[in-house]
């Protein structure tokens, strides 16, 4: 496979979400040669509007934020390639990454590849994400669900803790399961004390109707909610790093030190590939830390 130009990059960033683009902006401002390879699957692109990212009091849509970050990165000369890295190798002078266009050589690599939320493959639920009827991040937008009818959907023990969190915002919270299974005794007591409803019947069908979501249960009843929070797990896209021997936790998040360095020399990880706290503000903070350490670790580039 041909070697892809430009050669001898200072840094290759895998992933073009808020973390990857912020890292690219910092590195470009440090006058480093950097390329972003992005597969176009940023979780941020699914956000209809976020109100908890500082500086946007009226909120900003995820695609609009990505557009602004992309424009800023390109203004500093960052090349953003729409492609997918399929292999990553450690070589003597850094790394070699493979994509459909060839092999990219780089002294440093930043894993900003994020994660993918699991869903049920249900078209009604997937379409409802765009208008805020289905949401995945109560930390991001629980405030916007204040005093609304909220359902939390998933395994009782995992979804139950998120239901308790959302009780901060509404008195009307219901825990729904797909298997009809209960939860541990301690959690059951906490749910009861918090006034969270927990039907024994399992959720079997979902429908968007008149500005809300209806859920049909296995006992024939139908419930209506203003917003549903699925808790179905996720896939952390850290496989490239793990294959190089990067340490990780049980969910696949890569382990890093205070400078966002993995145990693989020259390999950094930021954003959702690292943290269980899936927040844009956290991701961009990681990016600034990683970019600064990368710059300081490379030979000086005096003007």
Automatic annotation (TrEMBL):
An example of a GO molecular function for this protein is:
oxidoreductase activity
Q: Gene3D superfamilies in the record, alphabetically?
A: FAD/NAD(P)-binding domain (3.50.50.60)
> Keyword annotations for this protein?
Flavoprotein, Oxidoreductase
Q: Which domain of life is it from?
A: Bacteria
Q: Which Pfam families match?
A: Pyr_redox_2
Q: Does the keyword Oxidoreductase apply?
A: yes
* Protein name in the entry: Thioredoxin reductase
- Tell me the organism: Bradyrhizobium archetypum
């Amino acid at each position: 496979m041909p070697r892809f130009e430009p050669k001898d990059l200072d840094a290759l960033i895998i992933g073009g979400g808020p973390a990857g683009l912020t890292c690219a902006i910092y590195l470009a401002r440090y006058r480093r040669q950097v390329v972003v390879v992005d597969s176009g699957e940023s979780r941020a692109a699914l956000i209809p509007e976020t109100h908890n990212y500082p500086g946007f009091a009226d909120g900003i849509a995820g695609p609009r934020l990505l557009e602004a970050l992309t424009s800023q990165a390109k203004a500093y000369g960052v090349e953003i390639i729409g492609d997918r890295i399929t292999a990553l190798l450690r070589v003597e002078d850094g790394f070699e990454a493979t994509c459909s266009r060839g092999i990219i050589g780089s002294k440093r690599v930043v894993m900003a590849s994020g994660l993918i939320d699991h869903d049920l493959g249900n078209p009604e639920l997937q379409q409802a994400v765009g208008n805020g009827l289905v949401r995945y991040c109560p930390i991001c937008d629980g405030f916007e669900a204040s005093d609304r009818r909220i359902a939390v959907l998933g395994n009782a023990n995992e979804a139950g803790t998120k239901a308790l969190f959302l009780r901060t915002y509404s008195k009307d919270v219901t825990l729904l399961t797909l298997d009809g299974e209960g939860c541990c005794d301690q959690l059951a007591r906490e749910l009861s004390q918090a006034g969270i409803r927990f039907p024994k019947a399992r959720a079997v069908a979902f429908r968007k109707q008149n500005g809300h979501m209806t859920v049909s249960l296995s006992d024939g009843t139908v419930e209506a909610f203003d917003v549903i929070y699925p808790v179905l797990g996720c896939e952390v896209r850290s496989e490239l790093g793990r294959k190089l021997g990067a340490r990780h936790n049980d969910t696949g998040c890569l382990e890093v030190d205070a400078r966002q360095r993995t145990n693989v020399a020259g390999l950094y990880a930021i954003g959702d590939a690292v943290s269980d706290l899936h927040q844009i503000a956290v991701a961009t903070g990681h990016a600034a830390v990683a970019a600064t350490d990368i710059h300081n670790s490379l030979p000086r580039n005096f003007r």
